[in-house]
Automatic annotation (TrEMBL):
Record domain N-acetyltransferase: where: 4-192
Xref: InterPro entries: Acyl_CoA_acyltransferase, Bact_Acetyltransf, GNAT_dom
Keyword Transmembrane in annotation: no
GO MF assignments: acyltransferase activity, transferring groups other than amino-acyl groups
Record keywords, A-Z: Acyltransferase, Transferase
PROSITE patterns, sorted: GNAT
The protein's name: Acetyltransferase (GNAT) family protein
Cited Pfam families: Acetyltransf_1
Length: 328
């Protein structure tokens, strides 16, 4: 058995690496979520200013026993490596995960990183799984949990219309892949505010600092990945962006869709702006669907108002996403 590096440039190798990860996810999760093959390859092979991704595999000849996906943050959290491990079911309890983790530690320390973060899926009620057991047995400490909810689409037009909310004093503005130039500064500021505001539990991570340039780079990367995004914002009487929401997915696999951020500035809360932006955005998203789809979202349990909004829309819980950290 040997450890091999994965950088995405060898197409056949990268596909073996990716397929193992995807197969494990689909076997263990009722509603798996994640990037498609070509979306992932863009992360590995592209030149990005905010992050880079690569991986390791444990192989025995032509057989892939396990893999480690690594995200290296470049603007914030430059002492952190985000790691995801997946082990083929027939090779569980044979030390594959442990060997991969030791190899990742060696690489991280060599590059001056001092902390691992990881996210594992757990039961919706208990918060436990084989992933949490492995992580905690190897010294990872739970820091935060998010509830994973899903909504099966399409919803009927009458159901969406019944949820629609018009809030006096605000204008609804929508766009697709590119933030209009007149809104890119406001969007960057709102994304930074979202980073400061989102519940993080005890996670020890730096907040993201967004600029118009970072917004544009993120949009370009998303387009290169073959992904799409619907954005709806609420604008107050002074022309400021008071709330926003984004939803999207991959053109090649629109059966898995994602509710990205939904954010309402603190001074505008209590006006039901969450529903006011989510419903028209959902209507826009659904208008482009040609097959049944599942919309995924994640929220911290303490974010009760947003979970309540999702429940009102029809989302239901399916599992938990447990965030853990390990200091090296």
């Amino acid at each position: 058995m040997e450890i091999v590096g994965v950088d995405g440039l060898d197409a056949a190798q990268f596909e073996r690496f990716f397929r193992l990860r995807d197969e494990v996810r689909r076997a263990e999760q009722e509603f798996p979520a994640g990037l498609g093959l070509e979306e992932a390859r863009v992360l590995f092979t592209g030149d990005h200013t905010d992050t880079r991704s690569d991986g390791l595999g444990l192989v025995d000849g032509d057989e892939w026993l396990g893999m480690a996906w690594l995200d290296w943050w470049l603007l914030e959290n430059t002492d952190v490596v985000d790691v995801e491990l997946a082990v083929s079911p027939q090779y569980r309890r044979r030390g594959v995960g442990t060997r991969l983790l030791e190899a990742v530690k060696e690489r991280a320390l060599a590059e001056g990183r001092r902390r691992f973060t990881t996210t594992v899926v757990a039961d919706a009620a208990s918060g436990e799984s084989s992933g949490t057991a492995f992580a905690e047995a190897h010294g990872f400490v739970r820091k935060h949990t998010e509830l994973h909810q899903v909504l099966e689409l399409p919803l009927g037009d009458a159901a969406i219309d019944a949820l629609d909310r018009v809030v006096d004093g605000y204008k609804i503005v929508q766009w697709r892949e590119h933030t209009p130039d007149e809104w890119v500064g406001e969007m960057a500021d709102a994304l930074s505010a979202m980073s400061r505001d989102v519940p993080r539990g005890e996670l020890d991570v730096e907040l993201q600092r967004w600029t118009p340039e970072r917004v544009r780079e993120t949009e370009a990367r998303r387009i290169a990945q073959g992904r799409f995004c619907h954005t709806t914002v609420a604008v107050d009487g002074d022309g400021r962006l008071a709330a926003y929401t984004q939803m999207g997915g991959a053109t090649k696999d629109p059966s898995r869709l994602y509710q990205f951020d939904t954010f309402v500035r603190p001074e505008h809360r209590g006006n039901r702006l969450g529903m006011a932006v989510k419903v028209p955005n959902l209507r826009s998203l659904q208008a482009g669907l040609d097959r049944p789809s599942v919309l995924h979202t994640w929220n911290a349990p303490e974010n009760a108002p947003m979970i309540a909004v999702n429940e009102h829309l029809g989302f239901r819980p399916v599992d938990q996403r447990v965030n853990l950290q390990l200091d090296l």
